[in-house]
Amino acid sequence: MKIIVCIKRVPDTAVKINIAADGKTIDKKDLEYVMGPYDEIAMEHAIQAKEKETGEVIALSLGSQDSEKELRKCLAMGADRAILLQTDVETTDSFQIAQSISKAIQNEQPDIILFGIKSVDTDNAQVPGMVASLLDIPYITTVVQWEKKENTILAESEVEGGHLEIESTLPCVLSIQKSNIEPRICNLLAIRKAKQKKLDIIPVTISPETTTVKLELPPKRTAGKIIGTGADAVPELIRLLKEEAQVI
Amino acid sequence: MPGILIITETKENSLKKVSLEVASEATRLAKTINTNVYAIATQSTYKELGEYGISKAFTIETMPYLQEYTSIIQNVMEKINPSHILFPATIQGKALSSMVAAKYNTQAYTDCIKMEIQDNITTIQRPIYAGNVILTAETTAPKVFASLRPNVFSIKENATEIECEPISLPEIQNKVQVLQFKASESKTIEITEASTIVAAGRGVSQETFPLLEEVAQKLGAAIGVSRPLVDAGQRPHEEQVGQTGKTVSPQLYIACGISGAIQHIAGMRTAKTIVAINRSPQAPIFQIADYGIIGDSQEILTALKENL
């Protein structure tokens, strides 16, 4: 079984995001980067699958040279090798990203391709579906657990109001949703070993954005009124919700 | 003038509320560019779309899974050559938008909160960084694919005569099979579509949860939780609101015992009215709440239950 896990280097979700002076990009000063939290869970899924059944796990990322750090983390978690599709062009055009990733995947011919459900920077949740569509293979969304059968995969997909049990042929693309599977913490030995593992850097061409983009902070919410303390304040809250806010 | 195509979604044989929101917004946009709105819907639900300005529906018996559905949408697009293809920003809608857009070598915009079309330029607003930043993009793409965030666009009636053209399912090799659907145990409303949410954080003990559920039921509300309750294994991830959970925009969000970490606020800051209930007057949640009560969640929930 050959699994490719696609990961992305993203700003840490605990860091406050500021807009740069050009009004079109994020201020990179003081930003800290991590592997996308959903991507990290997807990587854990792949490693656990490999531990159950033999196979190869490849970590793949598209981004700047700096993404090597996140790929090394994948190698420390247990991936066998890594591929960096290297570009310095930053884009929010998910189609261009999906195109480059599809080409790389085609060269590898994996059985299963895993993504996190979305990257927590652009929040677009587009690349997995696009890659499946470009490769003309099935796509199963928001998977919380899955199992490889002989020539198929059995996956549980978390959707609005419940779970779908889905069977698909291979190869296929899964987007991994957070569940009770937690990414492992790597020990020093694993981190040292990861430095020896193969990491291929393949330059890719991404045309710069054609659309004009403006970034703004959302309208600020201001603190409202403290109605009071304890249960005594509840009748007044209900009155305000009914008469002033008109939401109940 | 090429039309606008909307993809609808149903639940238990009726259109989801978000489908009506997409229909209403598509009708509003279509008027500004003087064109028609077409829909893909199920045979049993399409008629209602006439009330929201849809002039023609392409109908299918049931909604198939993604890959098959993608080729249905492609078939319809070949018939009407639409300029804008709008989806609800649900799990299915987002996935379909990406899969169909890729077939037309273009990107799709997820979770749009505003859209305008003028002189062949489409302007789109969408939240990024979990709603901490709003991105405005302009595109002149001949086909614009976008999914619209639930609970953002208002539903407006606009009765029109609706015709229907049944279409058959494509004969593609069936690579994916949905074996079964297991409905969630909780009977509450789906959180991303709920107009009221009662949410719990660390300040709500497990023993208090039945009380919180009763209050939610009285309000017709969905239940949300902050990340610590999910990480502690007390509540399912489906209920998590925030950066690594759901993003919600209800009319009313009641945050009980939630301090207000930035990752949580990112997921609910667009709620119309926010109520904060917290023991600590210093809790950051009060900085963004419209109404606040300082005190113990259990005591205040009990009073809410009695007074509602």
How would you describe this protein?
The complex is a heterodimer of chains A (248) and B (308). Helices cover 28% and strands 31% of the residues of chain A. By secondary structure, chain A is α/β, with parallel strands linked by helices. Chain A has a single domain, classed as 3-Layer(aba) Sandwich (Rossmann fold). In chain A, the strands form two sheets. In chain A, strands 9-8-7-10-6-1-4-5-11 form a nine-stranded mixed β-sheet, with helices on both faces. Chain B has 308 residues and is an alpha/beta fold. At the A-B interface, helix 3, helix 4, strand 7, strand 9 and strand 12 of A face helix 2, helix 3, strand 7, strand 9 and strand 10 of B. Strand 12 of chain A pairs antiparallel with strand 10 of chain B, so a sheet runs across the interface.
Topology (SSEs and partners):
The complex is a heterodimer of chains A (248) and B (308).
Chain A lengths: L1 E6 L1 E3 L21 E3 L1 H16 L3 E8 L4 H10 L3 E6 L7 H15 L3 E5 L10 H9 L3 E10 L3 E8 L2 E8 L2 E5 L11 H9 L1 E6 L9 E4 L8 E5 L4 H10 L5
Parallel strand pairs in A: 1-4, 1-6, 4-5, 5-11, 6-10, 7-10
Antiparallel strand pairs in A: 2-3, 7-8, 8-9
Helix pairs in contact in A: 2-5, 3-4
Chain B lengths: L3 E4 L2 E2 L2 E2 L1 H17 L3 E6 L13 E5 L5 H15 L3 E5 L2 H13 L4 E5 L1 E5 L2 E8 L4 E7 L4 E5 L14 E4 L9 E8 L12 E5 L8 H11 L2 E4 L1 H5 L20 E5 L5 H7 L4 E6 L12 E4 L2 H11 L1
Parallel strand pairs in B: 1-4, 1-6, 4-5, 5-12, 6-11, 7-11, 14-15, 14-16, 16-17, 17-18
Antiparallel strand pairs in B: 2-3, 8-9, 9-10
